[in-house]
Amino acid sequence: MVKSPVEGSTVVMVKLERPVKLSDFVHPVCLPQEGASLNLSYCNTLGWTRNRELLKRIELKASSMQSCENISIPTVNSFCSEPAYPTIGC
Predict the structure, then answer these.
(1) Do residues 4 and 12 lie in contact, with contact meaning Cβ atoms separated by under 8 Å?
(2) Phi then psi for 68, rounded to 5 degrees?
(3) DSSP code for 47
(4) Whole-angstrom Cα distance, residue 21 to residue 62?
(5) What is the reported pLDDT for 60?
(6) Residue 67 parent element (H or E)
(7) What is the value of pTM for the model shown?
(8) To the nearest 5 percent, what fractions of the chain are helix, strand and coil?
(9) Which of 7, 34, 84, 88 is deepest in the core (most CB within 10 A)?
(10) Residue 52: left (phi > 0), alpha (psi -120 to 50), or beta?
(11) Greatest pairwise CA separation for the chain in angstroms
């Protein structure tokens, strides 16, 4: 596993021993070119439950950097978001 050299980044690369078989659940992801304009209104992310037993998906919506600055110190690599649906807790 190769950790990103960029401080605060949570992106890693994993070198596999053999090629993976593509399926409905396994497929390549396309990353945007540097400087590309993105529509970041909604996105999905994964996170562990509090007891760290289950990995769950949550849909998020983008929020302003100002809303993040009210509760944390965002970095250049930060993405401010909140649950897409109010009933979902993070």
Answers:
(1) yes
(2) -70, -40
(3) E
(4) 33
(5) 86
(6) helix 65-69
(7) 0.43
(8) 5, 25, 70
(9) 84
(10) left
(11) 46
8 Å CB contact between 62 and 42:
yes
Residue linked to tokens 């978001």: 81
Is residue 36 pLDDT above 90, yes or no? no
Under a CB-based contact definition with an 8 Å cutoff, are residues 74 and 80 in contact? Answer: yes
Tokens of 21: 């078989």
Q: How many CB atoms lie within 10 A of CB 45?
A: 12
Q: CA-CA distances (angstroms) from residue 10 to 7, 17, 21, 88?
A: 9, 22, 25, 23
Give the pLDDT band (50/70/90) at residue 50. Answer: confident
